[in-house]
């Protein structure tokens, strides 16, 4: 069913009750295939919930006894709004502790919820759903949603309704099973509920700003609008970058000196868990770039792309201008130039009037080059972006969305370029985690410095 048809049939006012919404659902989801698919999902929910409740019964009894002893009651109930806007009580064990959410399996067994679906809403949230969002009430709320999955691995950049919308329209048994399967490793690798997300993180003496994608783009856009004062420098770091910084004093000093360092990759998530903290978002350059182009297309600001093989930066610029009409490209050229040509290239960048300079030489060369030329470069915002241009030029395909939701994009990069990437991922990731573990065993570091 197309989104326009779903919008037309389900855009009913909040005042329409469960009976009216159920009738709307019947009209919208007619068809043997749709009915059979819904029955199949319900059969899987029933069977899965029954098997899990049965197999976990000793744990449930123990956890219930602990809740009764500590809290004087076994269960807690929270009112939620589910399918057809019908209210139900979402169950959990009383008090904090491991296994608190296990009783929600009874909600799945009852039909209040499904294993996969949009998050169940509180009353005030349900009342605030706009008419074009009523489609979410045509399916059962789930234990796992697409937005929640992406949040676990730090890539929930879009609003919840937007991220989950395809699931409302296109819900299939296969899609549900895939969503649930992906949630298991994502939960292990991603954020742990209840852990604080401090504004700054410290890895090996490098201060990382713990922020959201939207705030990072706001910061860049605001800095790029100012040609007064010194330029702002930005760096992205992943576990490989931090491994380099661990042994390369010059690179580490540059990272300490830039205006902002942003976290890139699931490895930073796992490192945060070892340190007992939480990462706000995986603000990697590859995901930030198209959003920055969209913002600059709206504000009239321009970018200059410098780096990669001949023709790659130009191809990436062309692709972005196709995707975001109105985007101003101040210039684009490869990173293969001699020392004698450097001065003329810097003059060309300055004369272009670019608001932001993106340099793709690889780590640590790009950061060292920007630091060495900081007095000569006049672009308001300057950042190193690694192999970004290869992705957006089409030279190297990016990992599919489902693999990114798993936090396993690195495995795709390894498969694309095994000869170049095996040491970084198969050795470097473990070295990084060992170093973070050693850091976690030492006395707590002093608070990280504040950055603009």
End-to-end Cα distance, whole Å, is 47 Å
Oligomer: single chain
Strands side by side in the biggest sheet: 8-7-12-11-9-10
* Uncertain segments: 1-16
If helices are DSSP runs of H or I spanning 4 or more residues, what is the number of helices?
21
User: Approximately how much beta-strand content do the residues carry?
Assistant: 5-15%
Number of separate domains: 2
Helix content estimate: 40-55%
Give me the secondary-structure category.
alpha/beta
Layout of helices and strands, plus pairs?
Blueprint lengths: L2 H8 L7 H11 L3 H24 L1 H15 L3 E7 L5 E7 L10 H7 L3 E3 L6 H5 L14 E3 L1 H7 L7 H11 L2 H17 L10 E4 L2 E4 L3 H12 L7 E6 L1 H9 L1 H9 L2 E4 L2 H9 L10 H15 L2 E6 L4 H12 L4 E6 L8 H11 L3 E5 L4 H8 L8 E4 L3 H6 L7 H5 L3 H8 L1 H24 L11
Parallel strand pairs: 3-4, 7-8, 7-12, 9-10, 9-11, 11-12
Antiparallel strand pairs: 1-2, 5-6
Helix pairs in contact: 1-2, 3-5, 7-9, 10-14, 11-12, 11-21, 13-21, 20-21
Entry keywords:
452 residues; alpha/beta; 2 domains; six-stranded parallel β-sheet; two-stranded antiparallel ribbon; 52% helix; 13% strand; globular; disordered N terminus
